[in-house]
Write a structure and sequence with these properties.
By secondary structure, this protein is an alpha/beta fold. Helices cover 34% and strands 16% of the residues.
């Protein structure tokens, strides 16, 4: 016995002892009741899904989410928020009564004038719902009766990085878990051979940089982080066996490694060791599942025609939309697509025209495809960026060209599918698309609604970190009930 104690004390220094005994002393008592060793998490988990026991809190309306994030801030004025009166005001100064002293970015704060800039593009009412949609989105116009528009979104950040971070994690400063990680933590997985949370980024899209922390786990256990699938030979980095190394050898190595890790976990009671074991095991299962899901050879020609010719080019937005459908079919719970390049400070007409050309057909195709397969009623689709664009022009304004700066005070997003009303518009902006005049929706309201549709009470999904219980919506957020079906 003395020999064993001596070995234990050699393995635990003062810092580890003080850190572990804060939870460990309670763990001794709890383990006697649960007969479950010193695990801090096992007794909280749902044995079927791997999520938390007791979740979902109520019957979910959506089983899975695909979030099409348009990085850079699409112009609501040129896509969805039709403002015909602006045509009569071309070049006039934005009234102080409309601006109301709102702060500007450094890119337009030095301008001598803020000239009103109507959209160059034509709008028409589409579908039975009569929703206004720009000529830039002919394919989206075909599915407009499936969409639920929120035209009164607003955020707190005026620059890209904090604004994107805010949407993904509920906080402007990096370090908190992304919404996909929160869903993975709360609900677990419906497919043990693929990650719960998968990320796809359009190749060669340009624009503002994206960072892996946007789909990171923050302070949640590390196996809840998003896994990025890439185009090319290795869709997931470091997944394939080295040359000359077969599956049997990999399995044998993992078995021995797991034995060592379990000994380490028993000694130090560090939950991250258990998380690492889970990640190794998931990677082993993915060696079979990933090649299958990324092999498009079974897709018929009419599917490629539906998504557009770019869908044959791996890594494009269109190909990623098709990949998203394949992942959703296999019960991946949260799929996020990032498409950069919507940051049009100058030369907006040409830039936004190209962006819509690259995304419009595939976006509509994803809705049609899921609907045809009976998956749309179980899947929530989200489209939107981190903020909107200004009604005034940044840079030189002409009849054929203009730019728009960042605008956090109002912008448009849409949802489709599980749990939201079809052909419905919520919220409204003033005649300048500058201020919200009806039913504002904050980013935390959007996040609370997203979790609600997945069967989660956003106030009850928490994680204790550094003495405080955190949640995706921080201390704010209300479910936007009027948009719920």
């Amino acid at each position: 016995m003395k020999k064993e104690l001596d070995q234990t004390f050699r393995n635990i220094n003062r810092r580890k002892f003080l850190t572990q005994t804060s939870l460990g002393l309670g763990g001794f008592a709890l383990s006697g009741l649960l007969n479950n060793g010193l695990s801090q998490t096992n007794y909280l988990l749902n044995p079927v899904s791997g999520g938390l026991s007791g979740l979902p809190h109520y019957l979910p309306k959506a089983k899975r989410i695909v979030y099409l994030f348009m990085s850079g801030g699409p112009s609501q004025l040129d896509l969805f928020d039709y403002k015909p009166k602006l045509k009569e005001m071309l070049g006039e100064e934005l009234p102080d009564s409309i601006r109301k002293g709102q702060r500007l970015t450094g890119m337009s704060a030095g301008q001598s004038a803020l000239p009103i800039t109507p959209s160059l593009f034509e709008f028409k009412q589409r579908g039975d719902s009569g929703s206004w949609v720009s000529e830039l989105l002919p394919y989206t116009s075909e599915v407009v009766d499936d969409l639920c528009f929120i035209k009164s979104m607003h955020t707190e950040a005026i620059n890209h990085d904090p604004a994107i971070t805010f949407f993904q994690s509920g906080h402007q400063i990096a370090g908190r878990p992304s919404m996909g990680a929160w869903i993975s933590y709360g609900l677990g997985s419906d497919n043990n051979n693929l990650p719960t949370f998968i990320v796809l980024v359009s190749k060669n899209a340009g624009g503002q940089p994206l960072y892996a922390r946007l789909w990171g786990n923050g302070f949640l256990p590390s196996h809840h982080q998003g896994v990025q699938f890439r185009s090319g030979k290795d869709p997931v980095l470091y997944l394939n066996n080295p040359e000359g190394y077969d599956t049997a050898s990999r399995r044998s190595m993992l078995d021995h490694l797991n034995e060592l890790n379990k000994l380490q976990a028993d000694t130090y009671n560090d939950p991250e060791i258990v998380n690492r074991i889970q990640q190794y095991e998931m990677a082993f299962r993915m060696q079979t599942s990933v090649p299958e899901v990324t092999d498009f050879s079974d897709e018929p020609d009419y599917i490629y025609d539906l998504y557009g010719s770019d869908s044959r080019d791996p890594g494009t937005f269109a190909a990623n939309c098709l990949m998203a459908r394949r992942l959703l079919e296999r019960d991946v719970k949260f799929v996020q697509l990032y498409h950069q390049g919507w940051d049009q400070h100058l030369n907006l007409p040409g830039g936004i025209r190209n962006q819509c050309k690259n995304t419009d057909q595939a976006t509509a195709a994803l809705i049609k495809d899921l609907k045809e397969r009976g998956l749309l009623d179980e899947t929530l689709i989200i489209w939107g960026g981190e903020f909107g664009r200004t009604v005034y022009s940044q840079g030189k304004l002409t009849k054929e060209n203009y730019g728009r700066d960042h605008h956090p005070r109002c912008f448009t997003m849409w949802m489709a599918g599980a749990g939201v009303k079809k052909g419905f518009t919520y919220g409204a902006t003033d005649d300048f698309s500058y201020n919200i005049v009806k039913d504002p929706v904050h980013v935390h309201d959007f996040q609370a609604t997203l979790l609600h549709l997945m069967g989660i009470d956003h106030e009850r999904l928490t994680f204790k970190h550094q003495g405080r219980r955190y949640r995706l919506t921080d201390v704010h957020g209300h479910v936007v009930k009027p948009i719920l079906a």
